[in-house]
Design a protein that fits this description.
Length: 138
């Protein structure tokens, strides 16, 4: 059984959403945008979400709020923190608390492609069989 992944871009910044969305789209990844943790939680509850890209400048909520909300619904969802370069080291504790990765903003396509590749490998390792949610990368 193969299930196609979808990504969530969690940000209230339209420029940020557009930039990350373009990179995901260029890798044939379907995505949905959310502007709050509650919106993201609703999406995860009804869709097959593999990755959440979290804007560290989100006005309401912390990484831990997001992590607990989303992972309580589906522990397989991987959360990626995207941080402005001058705040990079502030978000390293998030990686120790469960973030799948921390990458800089503005994002480079290779940063997101690296995350996508790691996510596929992690999913296969977790599943240990052919019953893997499939992520198509072109």
């Amino acid at each position: 059984m193969h299930i196609r992944w979808e990504a969530v871009i969690l940000s209230s910044n339209l420029e940020w959403r557009r930039e990350v969305g373009q990179i995901l789209a260029s890798n044939a990844i379907d995505y949905v945008c959310a502007s709050s943790i509650d919106d993201c939680k609703e999406i995860v509850a009804r869709e097959s979400v593999g990755l959440v890209f979290w804007d560290s400048h989100l006005a309401v909520g912390t990484f831990q709020d997001l992590f607990h909300s989303v992972c309580s619904l589906d522990p397989r969802v991987k959360i990626v923190v995207i941080s402005h370069m001058d705040e990079w080291d502030e978000h390293l504790p998030s990686a120790r608390r469960g973030a799948f990765g921390v990458i800089p903003f503005p994002c480079q396509p290779t940063d997101i492609e690296w995350i996508l590749s790691r996510a596929v490998r992690a999913e296969r390792a977790e599943a240990g069989s052919e019953h893997v949610r499939e992520l198509h990368i072109h």
